[in-house]
Amino acid sequence: MNFGGGQGRPRYSRDMTESSFGQTGAAAGFRKIVVALDFSPASEQALTLARTQFPGAQLRIVHVTDARVVTTPDLMGGVTPVSDPALLQTLEHADASRLDRRWQAGEEVEQLVGDPVTGIVDAAERWGADLIVMGTHHQGALEHFFMGSTAEKVLARSAVPVLAVPVSGRR
């Protein structure tokens, strides 16, 4: 994996190189692109980048409503669902409404519920994506130590190349 790149510059992994970005869109070999969207500024920037840098590609915007937010840790190291299943349904509806405002004509949208890493990787592989584009978040050291980064986990698990886009102006 290559985490090269400077401030506000996309980071990339697998076999992608600087020369891969000399051409744009389908001409660069990326015809089917999954854009992971969590409504953060970083993921919004990743969506904008995918639209502008890969204009000939087919985009599928994938959002995973994180089912872990309605669970609590148990003593055995697992999680226990919160007793109110309506909470997850409310989150799903809110996310669906936000997704409806993000997609453009010609783009596809897929909303899933579960673990974001698994959802993104599985959606890309199931759809036959050539590339996953996603934003990266700035985390504190403690948060990163305990939770890790979703982008790092997708990079580690995906057989599909991943373009991780940081928020402009941040490292």
From TrEMBL:
Gene3D superfamilies named among the record's database cross-references: HUPs (3.40.50.620)
Annotated region described as Disordered, given as residue ranges? 1-20
Q: Where is the UspA domain?
A: 30-166
The superkingdom listed in its UniProt entry is: Bacteria
Supply the Pfam families for this chain: Usp (PF00582)
Q: Which family does it belong to?
A: Belongs to the universal stress protein A family.
Q: What is this protein called?
A: UspA
Q: Could you tell me which species this protein originates from? A: Deinococcus gobiensis (strain DSM 21396 / JCM 16679 / CGMCC 1.7299 / I-0)
Q: What is the lineage of its organism?
A: Bacteria, Thermotogati, Deinococcota, Deinococci, Deinococcales
